[in-house]
Amino acid sequence: MDARFNLFENEFAAKFTKRFANAGLLIAQSALPKTTQELVALRVSQINGCGWCVDAHAKEAAAAGETAVRLSLIAVWREATVFTEAERAALALAEEGTRLADAHQGVSDETWDQVRKHYDDDQVAALVTSVAMVNAANRLAVIVHQKGGSYEPGMFANHLSN
C-alpha cells in the first residue's frame, strides 16, 4: 500500500514538519549520547509499529557506527548483554513512556531512579523530550501509512536544509 498522504509535499504539512524537526534538532545537539538517542528512537518506533521511523533510525544508527549486533538485539534489550546500564535505563524509560496506556503509573519510580542515576538534568530533559518527539513522529507516519525501506542516512536533515 502506498502512503495515504505526503507530509513533505503539502504546504501546511511541510511547514509543520520543518518546525517539528527543528525542535528535534535541539535533542540531536544535546549532551545525550547520539547512540542513546538512536537506540531510544528505534525502540519507541518498534513498539509503535512505525516502519518509516524504524528504517530511518536503524540506518542513522548504523551510519553513526552502531553495530549490527546491538541493532539486532534492541527489541530484546532486557535479554541481551550488549547494552550499558545507562542505555538500559534509557530504554526502560522509552518503553514505559511509550506504553502509557498499559500502566496506570506511566514511568515507574524504579525506572526514573535509574535514569537519574546515569544522566544529568540536561540529558534527562533530552531523553524525555526525545521519547515524546519520537512518539509524535511515529503517529504522523503511521496515520498516513508512510512505509519504511526507502530512507537514506541524512535524508531528513537534507530535506530540512531545502
In short:
The protein has 8 helices and no strands. The protein is mainly alpha-helical and about 160 residues long. The model has no long low-confidence stretch (mean pLDDT about 90).
Mean pLDDT: 92
CA distance, first residue to last residue: 28 Å
What is the overall silhouette?
Answer: globular
Measured by DSSP, the beta-strand proportion falls in under 5%
CATH class group = Mainly Alpha
Q: What about the largest sheet?
A: none
Extended strand count: 0
CATH 4th-level superfamily:
AhpD-like
Helicity range of the residues? 55-70%
Computed CA radius of gyration, to the nearest angstrom: 16 Å
SSE ordering: HHHHHHHH
CATH T-level fold name: AhpD-like
Q: What can you tell me about this protein's structure?
A:
There is one protein chain. The protein has 162 residues and is an all-alpha fold. The protein has a single domain, classed as AhpD-like, CATH 1.20.1290.10. The chain has helices at 11-28, 34-48, 51-63, 68-73, 85-98, 109-118, 121-143, 155-161. The longest helix has 23 residues, at 121-143. It starts with 10 loop residues before the first helix and ends with a helix.
